[in-house]
């Protein structure tokens, strides 16, 4: 006889005001399996898991654990039922040690001291058994993100979780850390534990799950065996239409050098050198992709070139020198020179959230002749222009009068892209072009970037997504600790080599 599902959800419904985040969701997760849940942003994945972990209460529906109906009013009840959760944003206490974090909440405070020795032993055993390699006495704030995540997992195991839920666990990890996490998950599965893995990365689903469920607009639309599906099939089930996963592009036909950067250096307010002598070139009609783990200087590079941050060194655009500090080095001067910039941090730098879409479209370009009538801004021209841009970039809802904050992340992104791409730059700087963007919109954004390249423009792309770097770039430079570790051609390298370079190790000889 087959055992009952480790988890069974029956007809779960949950609304937030007018938003129906979970609609009539039923799901069975079999014990000892890794069950993936995929879906676009806002599909309802985190809501469903938060219900299972007692963070939200379902409006209706039932939860069965090991075949028995179980009430989960809070996370204490979830832990009692053997469920552990690793959140998208960790919930560790920064200035406490690993041991303190693991024990915290699991034991009564006043009994903490005598049990610490025992807890340390238990924790050390767990860490050894699962090859997690974390020091019980290390402070959380001194650990890498990958190690912090392991602490979250240890915390769940310490509480004897049989069911582990991970919500988008690899978003913050390097490829090597993600591989390590997957080894840990395989080990847990071999022990008979049940794992629910939420991700929007198809590759991860294919690599590690046994079964995969697809969510779309609050509904659980399909559950299939991983061996019987493909990335293409899953993408289509997620989006609900045909999508192009590979970027469809002809080989680049690079022309003259547009951007030349020599010995670029930036020192931040704390005296830390963020860029330590960057040299690179980008030619007309080519995409140079910068790969790297976030925080290794890529953002600083974009900010310097975009006129947001001062630097030393030499930068030329079409053979003309650009000022790197003082007057004439700001973003407006850069736009005049022919550089446009889709910043990584769109909320802070790309959009004024309280302003309407049409105002945002003109942002930075309001003094162009086509938007002016004498000395006044021609708001009607700007509004009509926005209307046309929104149509071309398929911004939804198609309403130039809606404030930027009322669009979803993907649509905000399209507003910034429309503005910067259609400004017809010689050089486009683009940071994390598809962060927080759904698969359908990713396809669209990638096509626009390739079109711009094919129109003979130079493009400097920064992304922490290696898939994106590999599929868009004509050349790839890897950054680590403020330096370029090396350059590779996409056809002559792979994720493993790039991953090593991203971690500061030399790749194979080119
Ligand atoms: P996913 O994890 O698949 O990206 P979520 O479960 O986070 O999706 O969100 C599903 C929908 O519910 C979205 O439209 C989101 O805006 C909405 N939502 C989620 N949490 C809340 C909340 N606490 N209050 C209001 N709306 C929410
Ligand atoms: Mg989520």
TrEMBL record:
Localization, UniProt: Cell membrane
SUPFAM superfamilies in alphabetical order: P-loop containing nucleoside triphosphate hydrolases
Ranges of residues in domain ABC transporter: 7-242, 259-506
Keyword line: ATP-binding, Cell membrane, Membrane, Nucleotide-binding, Repeat, Sugar transport, Translocase, Transport
A single GO molecular function term of this UniProt record: ATP hydrolysis activity
A Pfam family hit: ABC_tran
Alphabetical list of SMART domains matching this protein: AAA
Tagged with keyword Aminoacyl-tRNA synthetase: no
Membrane topology, record value: Peripheral membrane protein
UniProt key word Transport: yes
Record GO cellular component, one term: plasma membrane
InterPro entries: AAA+_ATPase (IPR003593), ABC_carbohydrate_import_ATPase (IPR050107), ABC_transporter-like_ATP-bd (IPR003439), ABC_transporter-like_CS (IPR017871), P-loop_NTPase (IPR027417)
Family: Belongs to the ABC transporter superfamily.
Protein name as it appears in the record: ABC transporter ATP-binding protein
Organism: Mangrovicoccus algicola
Taxonomic lineage from the root: Bacteria, Pseudomonadati, Pseudomonadota, Alphaproteobacteria, Rhodobacterales
